[in-house]
Every structure is written in structure tokens, then in C-alpha cells.
């Protein structure tokens, strides 16, 4: 894990940049600003930019910035992301995350996720406590690659912590720390797996199917080409894994999935994000999750802003009919 702790002066510089940008914006819409943030990020403190560029080039597994500015008069944690979207809560924090993230990659979003917003809210929502989405609380969010089903999934998923009063941990496993049996590793590297949209993608499953099938019809093989769970350079491989949204083509492949899950449990690490911490998880080298916690729904709940980053937005344009940062 590489971490930078900002000095008070650097924090003030980031806050001043964000305030200046916000003062020139009439209606806050990150999508309108997203083409500008890469240029604006040139004005982040030099030490921070150098740190982030180094993280990108060295493919740092987990990159943490501590000491980013969080509004001292931050509004109460919204009860669910849709309320956050409606009220526009935490705008300066969204911009700070966009500015830092733009040094690592190009921001993008999903039409099927959180109403197509570029910056997401991660906070517990009533009724979702046991769901397989980031709005859950009472159950652990199992270790996963973000948006495992898609060829243009993020190179990074980034999370900026606004509140975390119960010190709930974000969990992760680095492929470099995984001690997989050689036959499991070999199987995982073969094109014997299918990956499906997770439950945060509204309608994604049904869109890909007829519309007449039950939701668990995702375990049919249609629409999802087989791929491997481990790929890329042998000396520094990449990982694609989400036990809840993948399947093996045969018994051996299913067995390899279960063996990998057991190995994850032995290699799991955690980071407890504090307000002002942003973590950038390399989505090709690391699977991440979250520990369970008891939601409060009193305005003091854990609250993160989330941003997906791809190293080159043209990978996305190249598979689309429209030049949009929002994947349809
Ligand atoms: O809440 C966390 O720490 C991680 C949640 C998560 O996996 C996500 O938002 O993608
Ligand atoms: Fe995630």
C-alpha cells in the first residue's frame, strides 16, 4: 500500500482549488466538468501529483491519500444514494475526488448504476441491509472486482471517506499476496468462467436476456463470453473475480472458484478509511469488499464518495456508438 499524508498547507491548496472551481459553476453536474478536471488537476500540490503519477506507473495495488479536505459543516449522511443525488450532498468532496482521480485515470460511469451518475454515494440504505450492493450494512460485502462483467470495468475504483464513525474496514486481497495452488491458478487462467452484472446494475441482467426470465437467469450462458479469472503478465498477473457474479464452465472451474475464495480468506487485508482519506484500488490487481456494520440512519452513518477510473477513456468510446463517458 502506498500512502501520502497531506500537510495542512497542501490540504488548504486542494480546498482552495475546489472552492474556486465550484464558485464558477452554476449547477453542480460532475458530468459537465469531467472533461476539465484533468487540466485542473495540474494545479494540485506537486508532491501529491508526483505521488499519484508514480502510483499509476508502478501499478501500486492500493493507493491512499490522507488529509484531503472535508467540509467542516458537512451535511448529515443521506439515507441512501438516491437521496444524496436529489439533495446534491457533498459536492466539494465529489470535486476533490474527481481532481485526484483524474491524475490516475479518466472518470466514467454506468447508465445502469445510480442513475448514470459519475460520482456515486456509498452509504447504507433501509431495506438494503443484506443486499449484495454497496448500500448493504449488516452483511459483509464479499471480495470482488468492481463491475466484473464488463471489458471496460475500471482500472481503479476510488473511495473518498466523508464519515466512518465505527471504523468499518474496507477489505482487500492483492493477487500478489495470494497463495493459490498451482493447479487452481492454471484453471483460473483458462477461459472457463463467465461474469455477470452485479445487483447494483439496475435492469442490466434483464436487458441482456429476454426480459421474461427470472433474475437468476443470469446463470444461463447467453450473452456472456467465457473469460479467464487470471490473465496478463505471468510475473505480475491481473485478476477478475466476484464469487457472487461469476460461474465456472465445469466442475473443475467451479472447484477453482471455491479454492480461490478459501485462499482469499487467508490473505485478506483491511484499511479503515477515516474522513479525508481517499483510496484508489487497482481493480486489476486487487479485489475489495467491506466488513459488516450496524446502520444508524441518523445522519451520522458511514459515507463514501465513489468514482470509477479507466486509464484511457477511448477504450470505452471504441466499443460504443456514442462518445459518452457513461456506459449504456
Ligand atoms: O464500502 C466500502 O468500503 C467498499 C464498498 C464497495 O465495494 C464499493 O463501493 O464498490
Ligand atoms: Fe466495490
UniProtKB/TrEMBL annotation:
Keyword presence, Chloroplast = no
InterPro entries referenced in this protein's UniProt entry, alphabetically: Clavaminate_syn-like, TauD-like_sf, TauD/TfdA-like
**Keyword terms:** Iron, Metal-binding, Oxidoreductase
Q: Which Gene3D superfamilies match?
A: Clavaminate synthase-like
> Where's the TauD/TfdA-like domain?
127-307
Question: Transmembrane ranges?
Answer: none
Task: Tell me if Metal-binding is a UniProt keyword of this record.
Answer: yes
Q: Describe the family membership recorded for this protein in Swiss-Prot or TrEMBL.
A: Belongs to the clavaminate synthase family.
The entry's protein name is Fe(II)/alpha-ketoglutarate-dependent arginine beta-hydroxylase
Amino acid at each position: 500500500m502506498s500512502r501520502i499524508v497531506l500537510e495542512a498547507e497542501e490540504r488548504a491548496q486542494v480546498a482552495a482549488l475546489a472552492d474556486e472551481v465550484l464558485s464558477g459553476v452554476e449547477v453542480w453536474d460532475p458530468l459537465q466538468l469531467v472533461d476539465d478536471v484533468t487540466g485542473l488537476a495540474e494545479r494540485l500540490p506537486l508532491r501529491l501529483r508526483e505521488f499519484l503519477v508514480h502510483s499509476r506507473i508502478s501499478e501500486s495495488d492500493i493507493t491512499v491519500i490522507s488529509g484531503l479536505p472535508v467540509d467542516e459543516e458537512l451535511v448529515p449522511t443521506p439515507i441512501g444514494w438516491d437521496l444524496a443525488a436529489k439533495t446534491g450532498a457533498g459536492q466539494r468532496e465529489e470535486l476533490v475526488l474527481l481532481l485526484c482521480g483524474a491524475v490516475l485515470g479518466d472518470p466514467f460511469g454506468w447508465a445502469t448504476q445510480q442513475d448514470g451518475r459519475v460520482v456515486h454515494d456509498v452509504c447504507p440504505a433501509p431495506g438494503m441491509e443484506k443486499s449484495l450492493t454497496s448500500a448493504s450494512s449488516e452483511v459483509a460485502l464479499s471480495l470482488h472486482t468492481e463491475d466484473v462483467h464488463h471489458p471496460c470495468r475500471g482500472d481503479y475504483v476510488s473511495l473518498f471517506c466523508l464519515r466512518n464513525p465505527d471504523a468499518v474496514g474496507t477489505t482487500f486481497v492483492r493477487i500478489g499476496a495470494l497463495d493459490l495452488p498451482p493447479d487452481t491458478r492454471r484453471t483460473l487462467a483458462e477461459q472457463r468462467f463467465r461474469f455477470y452484472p452485479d445487483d447494483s446494475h439496475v435492469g442490466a441482467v434483464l436487458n441482456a436476456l429476454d426480459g421474461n426470465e427470472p433474475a437468476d437467469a443470469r446463470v444461463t450462458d447467453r450473452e456472456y463470453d467465457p473469460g479467464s479469472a487470471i490473465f496478463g503478465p505471468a510475473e505480475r498477473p491481473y485478476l477478475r473475480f466476484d464469487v457472487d457474479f461469476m460461474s465456472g464452465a465445469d466442475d473443475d472451474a467451479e472447484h477453482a472458484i471455491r479454492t480461490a475464495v478459501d485462499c482469499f480468506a487467508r490473505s485478506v487485508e483491511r484499511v479503515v478509511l477515516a474522513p479525508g482519506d481517499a483510496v484508489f484500488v487497482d481493480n486489476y490487481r486487487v479485489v475489495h469488499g467491506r466488513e459488516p456494520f450496524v446502520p444508524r440512519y441518523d445522519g451520522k452513518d458511514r459515507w463514501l464518495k465513489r468514482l470509477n477510473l479507466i486509464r484511457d477513456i477511448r477504450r470505452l468510446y471504441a466499443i460504443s456508438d456514442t462518445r459518452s463517458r457513461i456506459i449504456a
